[in-house]
Structures are given as structure tokens and as C-alpha cells.
Amino acid sequence: MKKLLVFPVQLILLLIICKLGYYFADLLHLPIPGNVIGMILLFFLLQTKVLKVEWIELASGFLVKHLAFFFIPISISLMTMGWLFIEFGLPLALTLGVSLICGFIVSAWTVQKFSHRGEANQHDSVNHTL
Question: pTM value?
């Protein structure tokens, strides 16, 4: 019974943060989509501990678990735009390929950077305990 009451409250909190992102994008005339600003705002609130993970954990877990369903309307809409892929297919494929490779490179570099930092911290802590 408690989950039935907590879930809508958490969902409303996430929607308020999202709507704040849209509001800030409109107010400041930013070229960034409002939902991205909302995610940055959510990240900031979580990092500063203004918002605790427990306060949104149930709703966000549900949304992430069912994320694939949110892509169904987009996929169906894309099926009606075959002419778009015929006309711009090669530039789209090239753009997606280059961005994929750049994403892999940045992700690999980030993991290597942070994994070396973790190994150094573990190595230092081992030496101090001896």
C-alpha cells in the first residue's frame, strides 16, 4: 500500500524537475533542450545531497526498467519517413558512425583515467596499513 502512495509522489517530483528544465531553457533562451537541463538539474541536486536517491528510487527504477517502451512511438513514426532515409541515409549513417566511435574513445579514455586513479588509491592504502 505504501508503494502505491510513494510511487506517484516520486514520479511527480521527477516531472517537476523535468518541467523546471524546460522552464529554465525557455526563460534563459538556451539552445539546450529542456529535458537535458532537467537531467543536469537532477544530477546537481543529487550530487549536492539536496535530493536523496531514496526519494526518487522507486519511480526512477520503474522508468529505467521500462525505458524500451518509450522508444516504440518513435520507431513507428520513423517507419513512415522512409523517404528521409533514402534522401539523407548516407550522411545520417556517417554521422552516427563517427559519433559512435567518438563515444567509444571518450568512454574508454574516461574508464582508463578513473581506473588508474582507483588502483593508485588502493596501492597507497595497502602500503599504509603495513
Answer: 0.58
